[in-house]
Structures are given as C-alpha cells and as structure tokens.
Amino acid sequence: MPSSLTVSLGGYTIVFALAAFILILITFGIFIFRQIQRTRLNSLRREISLTIAPDVSKKVRAQIMANIENVSALRNSLFPRFTDCNMISEHANQPYVQRMIGFDEIISGIDRQLEKIHPNLARRPGQSTYAYLLHIRSIGNFNDLSDHFIERISLLHEICRFRPTVPFGDAELEEVRSLLAEFAKILTRHQELLDAAVSSQAIDEPRGPRSRAKRVGSNISLSNLAADIVPLLTVKSHK
Q1: CB 98 within 8 A of CB 172
Q2: Which positions, given as ranges, span the membrane (predicted)?
Q3: Per-residue pLDDT tens over the stretch 47-100
Q4: CB 136: neighbour CB atoms within 10 A?
Q5: Cα separations in angstroms, 53 against 42, 69, 117, 140
Q6: pLDDT of residue 120
Q7: What is the chain's Cα-based Rg?
Q8: Chain centroid offset of residue 216 CA
Q9: 151 with 130: CB under 8 angstroms?
Q10: How far apart are the first and last CA of the chain?
C-alpha cells in the first residue's frame, strides 16, 4: 500500500501540482495588484476638498488662517511702491509725481483688491489693464464694468507708465481716484458672485501633466491675445 501511494504521488503528478500552485499564486497576485490600482484610481477621482485643514480643530484652523492672512499682509507690504516716504521725499517737486501716485493707486485699487477676493484673479505676466479687466468682466459675468470705464482706466494707467509726453496732473489723478472708487463699489456688489465663479472654475479644472501643459498653452495664447486686442486708446483733454 505505501509503495502504491508513492507511485501515485510521484512523477508527473508532482509537476502538475506544483504548476497548479504557481498558477494560483500568479492569479492571486494579479487580483491583488488590480485591487490596489483600483483603490488608487478611486482616491484620485475623489473630490478634492478646498477647505483649508479640514481634519483639524477649529482653533488650529483659525491659527492657520491667521498665518495665511499675515503672509498676505507681508506680501502686500513688500510689494514695490513708487509712493513710499523715501520716494515721495525725493521726487515731491518733480512733474511726474502724479504719475507715480496714479500708478500705485491703480495697482492697489484693482490688482490687490481682486487678489484679496481670490488668488486666481491675479493679473497674468505682461497682461494689459484693458485685457485684465475684460477677463474679470467675463469671469464675473457682470455688466457694471462698461466698455467706457475699462477703456478710460486703461488709458490713464497707460499714460502713467508709457506716455510721458501726455499731461497727467492733478485733474487726471482725481479722475483715477473717482474711477477706482466706482470700481470698489462694483466689487462690493459682485464679490460673492465673482468668488463663486472662480472657485467653480478651479473645481472643474482638470488636473495632471496634460492639463498643466494645456493651461500653459492657454496662458500663452491669452497673453498674445492681450497684446492684440488692446484698442487704440485716445487721450481726452480736460477743459
């Protein structure tokens, strides 16, 4: 009896049993690998929470938000300005001091205010004020920013920067301040709508290497468009 059992378990039987065992191991390994990949893909597809530090306590989150506000305040304080005390004292009697003040107030009243609403509203490198405001109007989908308003504030900004031969005095500076006050009222009325529109775009935006390359290409095309769509702004004299 023992000899017959040895014969039945020897030879090809052992080879087939070993092959079956290896096949089971390979099948089990493939199954585990597929489960790991499926779990990883599901975690990538999961909606990303935009809440800052959602898993911490309210006290810790408040501290994090305070630190973020401090960083933002530090960034704004370190932003180069033409109208700090030293610059004004050096150029107070120069005819271009109004241009310096106007340039700083436009940046502070438009760019900085929009960045406070949402970081994605920051001006792109090389983007003109005209193209920038058109872009903001299209995002917020509000018509309070008329074409005349955009063209006028863009012209005054252009005069401050690039047209030293065009007069820019106290009257033009007061007009800049009046336009900026109107712009602040428009932002106050549409702040929540603008923030919601930008946040929804950030959620719907695809992620990954291809999407990043696509965004870079779109930014380049928009920068080129910004240089092309700027109209020939005309100077209106004040009587």
Answers
A1: yes
A2: 12-33
A3: 555 567 777 788 888 888 888 877 776 766 666 665 666 666 666 677 778 888
A4: 23
A5: 21, 15, 20, 28
A6: 80
A7: 32
A8: 12
A9: yes
A10: 124
d(CA 28, CA 88): 76
Sequence-ordered strand ranges (E) for 104-227: none
Per-residue burial over 46-82, b = 16 or more CB atoms within 10 Å of its CB, e = otherwise? eeeeeeeeeeeeeeeeeeeeeeeeeeeeeeeeeeebb
Q: Are 170 and 162 in contact (CB under 8 A)?
A: no
DSSP 141: T
- The pTM for the full model equals 0.54
Take residue 149 and report the two structure tokens written for it: 């308003």
Do 64 and 53 contact (CB within 8 A), yes or no? yes
The residue type of 180 is L
Q: Write the pLDDT tens digit of every residue in 11-45.
A: 778 888 888 899 999 999 999 999 888 888 777 66
